[in-house]
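Lecture 7 notes: from sequence to structure.
We start with the chain below.
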Amino acid sequence: MKHTLKTSLFVGLAALGLTAVVGSTTAKPAAAKLYARITSNQQLTTDPTTRNVTFTGNNALYTKAGTLRGARIIASGTSLGTLAAANTAGSNVRAYRVATTNRGSVYYKVVTFDGQYRGWIYGGTSTGTFGGGITPYATTQDATAPDAKTQFKLIDGALAETTNQVVYDAPANTQYQVGATPTITNLANYKDATFTVTKAVTNPRDNTTWYQLASSNADLNGKWVNKGNVTEAKPANTNTSDNSVTVVYLDGENGTNNPVDKANQTFTTTDTSTKAGQVAASSFVNADKLSLQDFAKKHVPAGYTFVSFGNDNAVFGGTQYVAVVKAK
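Predicted structure tokens for the same chain:
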């Protein structure tokens, strides 16, 4: 009786279209994640100096375009924003490739000037502008150059450097992979070289000012030097009785007052109006802005100390005597 009832129920349900296969299910697959794909990837060929940028901090740096399968973060947007504000060599960035995706997004491949970070970053929706995670950045700003006729030379401290960190092909840290001039290896070779300044710029990252040089010395012509490494090349005056005073150092040891051997110096004023017999007053200075007495003190012979001036009111064409004693 039970079997007959079950059979009847099954037939009835089948007639109504309500049958189901016991224990059978059909699972609907989950939708696969859709990744972007690259439609263009090209080397940038415009003037490299127009492709200097800095990070905005709005987007992260990736190993590949951020919406591609397998893209990994190299540095977060927050980290890049901090780097941009640090004002170091790593704060300046060069863009050198551009890629677009099928979604219309533009990504730039960039590298920091110090080489520490390299990767892809979102750059907006136009290949003609920098946007998103990067923005154009001027690595130099125009500064006031000295008079174009003024002659300069390298300071002694720069000439004494054993490696060239003085003469550059571009101001330091303002262009990617452009630094100190590699062909200049011995700065002492340029002790007599003079030059004028054709342009001055400031690096806004460190506020240093750089001069571009014009020189008859081909090694220096067109190069860049930090403002602090140059000094005005003052023309040497010809010593005459009208503009110079001989400084004689007298050794006061045991009251002898004999001239110190080979210690005489010549003070020469830059003033062109003086005449022989005129008192060499303190208002008359030499090329180093020293008066006669300051000059005499500065050039006391090695191994001696200053005692006093042997005569007052020394005159041009005459002699300034200086008493010294051997240092104890």
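Points to note: The chain has four helices and 20 strands. The longest strand covers residues 93-101.
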